[in-house]
What we know:
The chain has about 280 residues and is of the alpha/beta class. The protein has two domains: about 5-145, Oxidized Rhodanese, domain 1, CATH 3.40.250.10; about 150-265, Oxidized Rhodanese, domain 1 (3-Layer(aba) Sandwich). The chain has ten helices and ten strands. The chain has helices spanning about 5-15, 35-40, 70-80, 100-105, 120-125, 155-165, 175-180, 215-225, 240-250, 265, and strands spanning about 5, 20-25, 50, 85-90, 115, 150, 165-170, 195-200, 230-235, 260. Helix 4 crosses helix 9 (about 240-250). The termini are far apart.
Amino acid sequence: MDAIVSAEWLKSELSKSDVRIVDATLFLPEHNRNSKAEFEAAHIPGAVFLDLEEVTDPSSGLPLMLPRPEKFASRAQALGLGDGSRIIVYDNSPLRSAARAWFMFRVFGAHQVAVLDGGLEAWKAAGGELESGKPIVRHRHFTVWGDTSSVRDLDAMRENLKTGAVQVADARPAGRFAGAEPEPRPGVRPGHMPGAKNLPATTLYDEAGKLKDADGLKAAFAAAGIDPEKPLIATCGSGVTAASIVLAAHVLGLKDAALYDGSWAEWGSQADTPVVTGP
């Protein structure tokens, strides 16, 4: 299964017994929207809601960090997501948070997973039906598994800063990357890692919220000074929009793009990590 599927494809596959639909919409406080309430009001038939704010590691002290494999498997089982499922994730968020869910499922062993291109808006534009209410699901076995080969931590980022071996792509908006705009989280310094390149996640999508085609993605990478054919580590504010860079790199054929899970929420809050400002 491709990493990206269209609304028309999903309409034709929706009734298949192994297809599972997951709404992974995430909002920030400034969006002033409630993802759970919006899901219950209208979602793709049969969809379940994956709460990205809850399926985390609260012991880390950082926002939205990957949970332990056991926790993820438990939540997946409770949502009726089991081994052998073809999982389609979508969102209705300006963060394109479905990419984060796609990344998480892959880390935790579900490789038959794809993102619905354009999310809920694309589904509605294609004439897809909607339903409301809370879904009734049957628990399914989801094997506990975790492969963190595509995840980087603070130590790995410190080491990469010394060696410069892997290019770092920062998905935050240009103003935050440059340090011209304040960070939304208290105690986090503005700016970016030395040597990082700015590849705003928004540049990877078209006006309809669909991932750009290969040429468009290559152009976005090139404009940021990032080579999508060479190893890269994606970062952002809290590891959510960085997943769009990993997804885009995957679509372009780079299968081992990594994500710095702590991202700027971690790096920018350390007392001894170097921070630079400017474009």
